[in-house]
Write a structure and sequence with these properties.
The complex is a heterodimer of chains A (533) and B (265). With 533 residues, chain A is mostly helical. Chain A folds into two domains: 309 residues, Cytochrome Bc1 Complex, Chain C, CATH 1.20.810; 79 residues, no CATH class. Chain A contains 19 helices and six strands. In chain A, a hairpin with a 5-residue loop joins strand 5 and strand 6. The radius of gyration of chain A is 29 Å and the shape is globular. The N terminus of chain A is likely disordered. Chain B is mainly alpha-helical and 265 residues long. In chain B, helix 8 crosses helix 11. Classes of the chains: A mainly alpha (533), B mainly alpha (265). The interface between A and B is large, with 75 and 59 residues. The complex binds protoporphyrin IX containing FE.
């Protein structure tokens, strides 16, 4: 792992780089990049994982476009998969089967593409959670959170459009559900559905339209947003976990060049390797087993890819028979309510940083991250959100849970319905309690040191355990965090207390009333003197 | 598994001692009789019309089934009449281990089979002798079907309960359509003929014998040809794929991120 500095003009590499540099002045950019700090915590690499998966998706997807035909024209399959020979299907389905069975490496590439897509969105999800729980979204990064959120939604759209392209039975059922959701919207639903499908579902246009979205429009927008996202990361510099010498003004760590560049570059190949390994050994989306789409059959255990699962779950957990007939239209609340629920959930995710900034009234820049325990209410809100999402997610698999754990379908649904409401509340309370307890423990350790497990007998005959004080580095970590006191209700310049002020004070109390303050310098000094008698 | 039946039936029995004794005696006598019979007929070919076999079946029935189905298979409060259900129903129910039933769940599950093939056939012969019903399909009913047509028929007629890939699915109130990956061709055919429990009957007007044969051919193809894409993850589709990427895929990646950010000394 050593890099030897070669004089600029000696050797072939040197000559080439010199040639390039004289024409592009690229060395400035390389130097700038080389001085960036290599992230020193694993969770900082999750964004990179998403980025690399996206690159894998672009590469494998480009390969697939050479052979896939997005047409819904009907053909008789004549490829080498016996149980479908002679079966009527769309050209889209038959060309996907040809890629799978009659094109060298085609199946591997299909599986790489799909597995990478699943990895892409799960890496985004985890990355988002990392950003949330560490408070990395605070000023000045709220905008980048918004960009990231758009990427998250776009990635789901990208995934769903791709999943539908082969025109197989499973994805056709998925489209049918989307169509059902659209048609369920009052007044405009039917017209939107006609517009989208070019007439009555399934029509003969939808695959071509999804294809344009999937390979042209959405990737371009995703790419543009990724570029924006990364530009902001460079402009803002990376955040860092609290630690000795780390302040809001600096970034501490080792520069990327020379040693870590190899690591960072190598990481792409590691991710690529993992994806290829999975794709080479594990089936994904076996469309040959699903067969071509036909509106009449519906399979048991029909599920969307995991990232759409929460939406499917919302539909499944909705109690049935909620419909009213108003103004000459049927209002299917069992569709409208889940759709609204999902939109509200996404809106909350999007808006959280702005909301928290409003509650705290904190206008400072934050480059040092919060340890999750030091922001108990935020962490608890996150835990509630994760629980809510997870219950919806489980809802999408309710039938599979029922068969595999030998319980009744109705039991699973009813349990999940209750958990959807109570789960987040309990998760909130538990997470908050745990955070506060951990903070108390931190205080204890700072003030009294940690237990060494060494028992000594005092001259008086008494036994005590020796406590040892932390060293300065470790103590730094435990005492340096933001202490947000609740905001008091104060009259404004005109001597009035507005409703907004009141609401804000109420939220502020909700966030910070039972906070645990970090140990202060004086407290610590007092305690030291006290223990030395 | 073939040694297990003894323990199984003892655990499941909750009937009075007399019945247990009866069962024991029945088993010993039939077992002894069978030891002699099997040496004579080496293969599983059993003539269901032979009075000897029917007689054999009646004894087995009296010992194992009569408590629920009645001495003359006329039915009791604990089990339906078997008159006219045919040999196919018995061969399916007993041959997949569903009968004799144990306990009362929402649905009698398939279990390790408790009888030898000859005993199953004898039971079938006895029940068939009570009244006409679907008979056990012959080898020629099962082979030579068109898997492609069978696949299409399967998607239309069976996938809504059994899942397109035959992975099984949930029905209401704890009932379920089982997975079909371990079902033999005969039992698959019989299931369509008789419609066990919550499954509908597919008579010869719904699905002609040749269409049934096609479906069997398709199911056999699925069994014999593992997925060309690699591990099937239980053929559960996106649910198992999603769990796989979160646990194994992302798990491996996180391991790598930890390794790569570890401080190199
Ligand atoms: C296409 C998907 C995405 C890609 C390729 C991506 C990529 C990255 C990369 C490489 C970084 C720097 C390394 C890191 O902190 O992990 C980063 C940082 C960040 N991302 Fe993303 N990201 C994506 C989606 C998201 C989403 C969905 C959100 C949240 C809604 C988000 C919010 C952020 C924020 C706030 C930062 C700055 C974090 C910091 O500096 O500590 N990103 N992203």
């Amino acid at each position: 792992m050593t890099v030897t500095a070669t004089p600029p003009s000696s050797g072939v590499t040197g000559k080439i780089s010199n040639y390039l540099d004289e024409r592009t002045s690229i060395s400035g950019a390389v130097k700038e990049f080389g001085r960036k700090i290599f992230p020193d915590h694993w969770s900082f690499l999750l964004g990179e994982v998403a980025l690399y998966s996206f690159v894998i998706i672009l590469l494998s997807g480009s390969f697939l476009t050479f052979f896939f035909q997005a047409s819904m024209a009907s053909v008789q399959y004549d490829g080498s998969y016996v149980p479908l020979k002679g079966v009527e299907m769309s050209v889209a389905m038959s060309s996907t089967l040809d890629i799978s069975f009659d094109l060298r490496g085609g199946l591997l590439l299909r599986q790489i593409h799909h597995w990478a897509a699943l990895l892409f969105i799960s890496a985004i999800g985890l990355h988002m959670l990392r950003v949330f729980f560490t408070g990395a979204f605070r000023k000045p990064r709220e905008l980048n959170w918004s960009i990231g959120f758009v990427l998250f939604v776009l990635a789901m759209a990208e995934g769903f459009t791709g999943y539908s392209l082969p025109d197989d039975l499973l994805s056709g059922n998925g489209l049918r559900i989307i169509d059902g959701m659209i048609v369920g919207l009052p007044v405009v639903g039917t017209w939107i559905s006609f517009l989208l499908f070019g007439g009555e579902f399934p029509g003969s246009d939808i695959i071509g339209r999804l294809y344009t979205l999937h390979i042209l429009l959405l990737p371009l927008v995703v790419l543009a947003f990724i570029v924006l996202h990364l530009m902001f990361v460079i402009i803002h510099k990376h955040t860092q976990y609290p630690g000795p010498g780390r302040t809001e003004q600096n970034v501490v760590g080792y520069p990327v060049l020379p040693v870590y560049a190899a690591k960072a570059g190598g990481f792409f190949f590691l991710v690529f390797g993992v994806v290829v390994l999975i794709a080479a050994t594990v089936t994904i989306n076996p469309i040959w087993a699903y067969g071509p789409y036909d509106p009449s059959p519906v399979s048991a255990g029909t599920q969307p890819d995991w990232y759409i699962g929460f939406a499917d779950g919302a539909l499944r957990l909705m109690p049935p028979h909620l419909e009213t007939y108003w103004f000459g239209y049927t209002w299917s609340w069992n569709i409208i309510i889940p759709v609204l629920l999902l939109l509200v959930f996404l809106a909350v995710v999007f808006a959280y940083p702005f909301f928290e900034a409003w509650v705290t009234g904190d206008k400072r820049e934050h480059h040092v991250l919060d340890r999750p325990r030091n922001a108990p209410v935020r962490t608890a809100i996150g835990a509630a959100g994760v629980t809510f999402y997870a219950v919806l997610w489980a809802g999408a698999a309710s039938d599979i849970i029922a068969t595999h754990f030998k319980v009744t379908m109705e039991g699973v649904i009813n349990t999940l319905q209750i958990m959807l409401i109570l789960g987040p509340i309990f998760a909130f309370m538990i997470a908050k309690r745990v955070c506060l307890a951990l903070q108390k423990k931190d205080r204890e350790i700072v003030l009294h040191g940690f237990e060494t497990g060494r028992i000594v007998r005092l001259p008086g005959g008494e036994f005590t355990e020796v406590h040892q004080q932390l060293d300065d580095y470790d103590r730094w970590q435990l005492v340096s965090f933001n202490d947000n006191a609740p905001i008091m209700v104060r009259p404004n310049a005109r001597g009035k207390i507005t409703g907004a002020t009141r609401r804000r004070a109420a939220w502020s109390r909700f966030f910070f009333e039972d906070r645990i303050a970090p140990v202060t310098q004086t407290e610590y000094k007092q305690e030291l003197e006290h223990s030395h008698h | 598994m073939s040694q297990k039946p003894e323990t199984h039936r003892k655990r499941g029995r909750r009937s009075p001692v007399a019945i247990v004794l009866l069962v024991g005696i029945g088993l010993i006598t039939t077992g002894a009789a069978y030891a002699m019979a099997t040496t004579a007929t080496a293969s599983a070919e059993v003539d269901l019309m032979s009075p000897q076999v029917i007689d054999e079946g009646q004894k087995l029935f009296a010992a194992n089934c009569a408590t629920c189905h009645g001495q003359q298979a006329q039915g009791t409060d604990n089990g339906p009449s078997l008159i006219g259900v045919g040999a196919a129903a018995v061969d399916f129910q007993v041959g997949t281990g569903r009968m004799p039933m144990q306990g009362n769940g929402p649905q009698a599950p398939a279990k390790p089979v408790q009888f030898t093939d000859e005993q199953v056939k004898a039971l079938a012969a006895y029940v068939a002798s009570l009244g006409p019903g679907p008979s056990i399909p012959s080898q020629s009913d099962l082979t030579g079907g068109d898997a492609a047509n069978g696949g299409e028929l399967f998607r239309i007629n069976c996938a809504m309960c059994h899942n397109v890939a035959g992975a099984g699915g949930a029905l209401t109130e704890g009932k379920y359509a089982p997975e079909l990956k371990n079902t033999s061709a005969v039992h698959a055919y019989e299931a369509m003929l008789i419609g066990p429990q919550n499954m509908p009957v597919f008579n010869d007007l719904n699905l002609t014998p040749s269409e049934k044969k096609d479906i069997v051919a398709y199911l056999e193809y699925l069994k014999e040809n593992p997925s060309p894409g690699g591990l099937e993850l239980g053929s559960l589709g996106p649910v198992s794929e999603g769990l796989f990427i979160w646990i194994i895929g992302l798990g491996a990646i996180i391991g790598l991120t930890i390794w790569i950010t570890a401080k190199s000394n």
